[in-house]
Amino acid sequence: MRLTYQRKIILEELKNLGNHPTVDEVYLAVKKRLPRISMSTVYRSLEVLSKNGLIKKLEPIDTQKRFDDNVGVHYHFYCLNCGKIKDAPLYENESKEIEEAIKSVEKVIEKRGYKVSGYTLEFWGNCDHCEGGESYDREKNKK
User: Fold this and answer.
1) Angle of helix 39-51 relative to helix 23-33, nearest 10 degrees?
2) Cα–Cα distance between 87 and 75 in angstroms, integer?
3) The pTM is what?
4) List of residues 6+ apart from 17 with CB closer than 8 A
């Protein structure tokens, strides 16, 4: 894949938005810097960046596709009330426990003759804002 100027700008704006933006949100941000860019160019570029592992494509239930510049292992929480997508509020040690459980499941599946090449693990419900709870602060709550 060639990282064209347009793709570079799209990637920069995706990172600047940082909130798992939709294609529309990325398009509006990119349009400020590249006024002549089309929605289809942004969409195709996001798909290419996703297929090449530079971003993640999220396809949540009942909402538009969203994109994430964080390609590291992490999970998402989908709020069924407000529609926001957030990184699941897990501490590093909790994420490691989940990864170990997933590896155990992969071993069982592969024993049955299948080859696992990926997975998704998603959580949904009401976010801390919609439930009226305290906001999760990763820096403040590091263990």
Assistant:
1) 110
2) 6
3) 0.57
4) 25, 26, 29
